[in-house]
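Marked as duplicate of an earlier ticket. Keeping the data here for the record.
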Amino acid sequence: MGRAVIIGYCRINTFEPAARLEAQRLYLARLGAENFFCEKTSIFGSTPELERAIACTRKGDVIAVTRPYRIARTTREVLALIERLGTKDVGLRIVDTPVDTSTTTGRMILASAPLWTLGMSPPRSMLADLFLFWRRRR
């Protein structure tokens, strides 16, 4: 088994300037990310680069992102991703938040903290859940 790698995932929506994608990549590189998966997608579009990043991970690796809304639309989706990565023994680090499932302290904080500490406001998360529910029923 090789050493653990920090994998940077960068995403912007279609209305954001491309410079923000590069800014995320540079920020994650300063934090030690070695491999990067970057994409520009619509708010409710698919995220094939995130799927590629997950597929490329090995036990002990960490996927790092700058903000929780870069990897998921709701708190529920962030938690589902954390569980999915956990089955591969891969951590998730959301920089500038206490979320870092690659460390014991980070997992303990995540388990004891209110969900809004993931960086998603309850109204934003609730609205996204309602929109997704409405969209599935159409």
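See parent ticket for discussion. DSSP finds five helices and four strands in the chain.
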